[in-house]
# Entry
Amino acid sequence: MMKVWAPGGRARSGDADTAMEYQLRQYPLQQGALEIQYIEEFFGEFPRRKTAAEVIRRLDNRDHQILMAEAPLPDEPAAIVPVAYKVSHELRVDETDPKLADLVKRIREYVCFDGRRVLYSWIGGTRRDWRGQGFFRALTEEQEAWAHDNGFDEILVKTKNRFYDMRSTLDRLEFNVVKFEPHPHDNRDSKVYLSKRLGIEVIDRHRSKRAVVRLD
# Structure
């Protein structure tokens, strides 16, 4: 487990920004897949939950990261539960999985794969009662550090236009919109593709904002 102290989190009991402690844990594939299947039951806006089998099938035999933020339950402080998560994996130019092959086709003109490693931020979210407290940002910053340390050159995110809070956080973290696919009937469901090129300067900026203590 790692603990991350970062400014900009919002305290539950007040409106002012305050430094918060985020407890992040990186999971191995099998255990992480089961945790994802469990936590997605708490996300009402997801029309279909991911199963552990789906997660394993997608991530097996490719570089990936399963990262979760944990926090105590308000009514039971001794009970620590996953409250937010982020799953990312390597995206290759020669994908054979139909969904990933379609993704590469859609962004091939905007993201360079030649001699570079691209990390795809696949799924993630925060449980409703814990939103607005900086968990998504803490996970994203730790994801970037992991990606840089593992030789990735760029992170790609696909989202929907209506996820305004998520897009706002990605904007503050300097993700750039590389493609916008309008929905024919509802612009809120338009697809937005964002990416961020990684470099040591990115990690240095994060170091100036947070401290990470890794725990055994």
User: Anything to note?
Assistant: The chain is about 30% helix and 35% strand. The first strand starts at residue 2 and ends at 10. Residues 2-214 form a domain with the Aminopeptidase fold (CATH 3.40.630.30). The beta strands are 2-10, 17-27, 64-73, 76-91, 118-126, 154-160, 176-181, 191-197, 211-214.
